[in-house]
Design a protein that fits this description.
Distance between the termini: 37 Å
Largest sheet: 7 strands, mixed
Shape: globular
Bound molecules: flavin-adenine dinucleotide, succinic acid
Helix content: 25-40%
Number of helices: 14
Oligomer: single chain
Length: about 525
């Protein structure tokens, strides 16, 4: 098999951002779309709640903008937010053209509420918005002759010469070979890094690969301390990463303690619809104070037919685990959900490396600030994927590909010590959960940093000696990204949004971004 492929554009990742960019790129360009798992496997596929957009005549762009800025604790970039918010109705219409049928109520969108929004502006497809978006976008991609899909292809590192990106080394998981994908333009659409934490709502694909690759390539990585913990993930021994959508609270569901007592009034007058950082910290506080394993979310007071029609996925999944949400409260706990920081980009998704772009959760566009407002993420994916494609389409693209050395595996051998990878993988995720969680302190952050530096060295030593495997590639990225999260957290001497450090409980008057770049 050839160890080299040449394409005009290489897209790494097939979530909503990757698929949308592929569709929007000119049909004159040859495109490789690679994905490390099955094509549909992504956070995008599991999105439940919906996509925010001003679609009601009573609502306004200014209101969506100020809700986004306020929830982001004033370090969001107003220009990027306005850019995204003003294009949101068009993003909804693009998705409809692709085949997404948003839920309707009496001939209008069935808009719902989520935390931080001051109006009903969440368009959704019942509670399976992501599944509908992904299957319809994929169907569009599959119709395009200029796009080649590579499933189970895992990008290892970017091909960088000076300040220019020429593609990536990619591990073909089936043949176990590394292939050079040489390209004029490369788009990172690899999603977030929530798998750095022991408990997460995300699928296994969210290992921060794009952030780690970009960092090694010399990109600016911004605001990585802002990991969003979703307040309500299902608490059940057999439920791996299952989310209980915030839209349940949008429809009136109440958070209660095991004895049935409500508690959100003790924390915020917006109650269950306070932004996620507040609700997650409130639950964490109740659980730690009383020693509870979980709290409960109750929607059982609503009509059971309505519940199962409005939330078919959640009803079915809970039922399979023996929980009837129409008659009983749902046991829930917070878990890592979203990476607000990432690879710094401009409005066209361009990074500080030439010919390298980042879109979706891997990117830092400035729209989320210190806390992402609900349902702005799929929106960001669609809007910035379009903008990235538009930028690439309008610029001339080179026709000579640079000469790239093949991947050199002559100095490594298969490992007989794979337990090292498994052990370190678990250790990193436990360190992040215990020391870099919802409430932080300098001493715990320093402990985390000390051990992550050692693990980083151990993994790099291992990587130099042994043949790569998918687990090793992901572990290397997980450690790199976790280290960046901790360094960003240590550099912020205040509490803001999702980053709460009990040694600096106050927010500074002047907002600043934390920027980490390879020295
Ligand atoms: P993803 O959808 O995560 O896709 C990343 C892709 O990159 C995957 O295909 C992955 O396999 C691939 N990949 C990663 N690394 C590599 C590599 N090294 N090589 C090759 N391929 C790679 N947001 C909302 O706005 N509304 C919601 O209702 C909502 N609900 C959510 C529910 C859940 C359970 C979760 C987990 C998230 C939810 N979010 C929601 C957040 C939102 O879904 C994500 O932020 C968004 O989908 C990210 O899209 P993406 O395309 O950037 O990345
Ligand atoms: C949810 O449905 O609760 C997730 C929404 C989001 O992450 O924006």
């Amino acid at each position: 098999m050839s160890k080299q492929h040449q394409f005009d554009v290489l897209i790494i990742g097939s979530g909503a951002a990757g698929l949308m960019s592929a569709i929007q790129l000119s049909e004159n360009l040859s495109i490789a779309l690679i994905s490390k798992d099955k094509i549909l496997e992504s956070s995008s596929y599991y999105a439940q709640g919906g996509i925010s957009a001003v679609l009601d005549s009573e609502d306004s762009f200014n209101s969506h903008i100020s809700d986004t800025l306020n929830t982001g604790f004033d370090i969001g970039n107003e220009e990027s937010i306005r850019f995204m918010v003003e294009q949101a109705p068009m993003a909804i219409s693009d998705l409809e053209k692709a085949g997404v049928n948003f839920s309707q109520q009496r001939g209008n969108y069935d808009l719902t509420m989520e935390g931080g929004h001051s109006s009903k502006r969440i368009a959704h497809v019942a509670d399976k918005t992501g599944q509908s978006v992904q299957t319809n976008l994929l169907a569009q991609v599959q119709q395009k002759q200029n796009i080649t899909l590579f499933e189970h292809y895992l990008a290892v590192d970017l091909l960088i010469d000076g300040n220019t990106c020429h593609g990536a080394y990619v591990f073909d998981k089936k043949s176990q070979q590394v292939i050079s994908f040489v390209s004029h333009k490369t788009i990172l659409a690899t999603g977030g890094a929530s798998k750095s934490y022991l408990y997460t709502s995300n699928p296994d694909t969210s290992t921060g690969d794009g952030i780690a690759m970009a960092f090694r390539a010399g990109c600016e990585i911004v605001n990585m301390e802002f990991t969003q913990f979703h307040p309500t993930c299902l608490f059940h021994p057999h439920a791996k990463s299952f989310l209980i959508s915030e839209t349940l609270r949008g429809e009136g569901a109440k958070l209660i303690l095991p004895n049935g007592e409500e508690f959100m009034h003790n924390y915020d007058n917006r109650l269950e619809l306070a932004p996620r950082d507040t609700v997650a910290r409130a639950i964490d506080h109740e659980m730690k104070t009383h020693g509870f394993d979980c709290v409960y979310l109750d929607i059982s007071f609503k009509d059971s037919n309505w519940i199962s029609k409005r939330f078919p996925t959640i009803t079915k999944r809970c039922h399979a685990l023996g929980i009837d949400i129409c008659s009983k409260p749902i046991p829930v706990v917070p878990a890592a959900h979203y990476t607000c920081g990432g690879v710094n980009t401009d409005l066209s998704a361009q990074s500080n490396i030439d010919n390298l772009y980042a879109i979706g959760e891997v990117a830092h566009t400035g729209v989320h600030g210190a806390n992402r407002i609900a349902s702005n993420s799929l929106l960001e994916c669609i809007v910035f994927a379009k903008s990235c494609a538009k930028n690439i389409n309008k610029n001339s693209i080179g026709n000579i590909f640079p000469t790239i050395d093949d991947w050199d595996a002559s100095r490594v051998e298969p490992s007989k010590e794979k337990v090292v990878v498994t052990h370190l993988w678990h250790e990193v995720r436990r360190i992040m959960w215990n020391f870099v969680g919802i409430v932080r302190s300098d001493s715990r952050l320093k402990l985390a940093h000390y051990r992550l530096l050692q693990i980083h060295k151990e993994v790099n030593d291992y990587y130099r000696i042994y043949s790569i495997t998918d687990d090793l590639i992901e572990l290397r990225n997980l450690v790199q990204t976790s280290k960046i999260i901790v360094e960003s957290a240590l550099s912020r001497k205040e509490s803001r949004g999702l980053h709460f450090n009990q040694d600096y409980p106050k927010q500074l008057d002047k907002a600043h971004n934390s920027v980490i770049i390879k020295s």
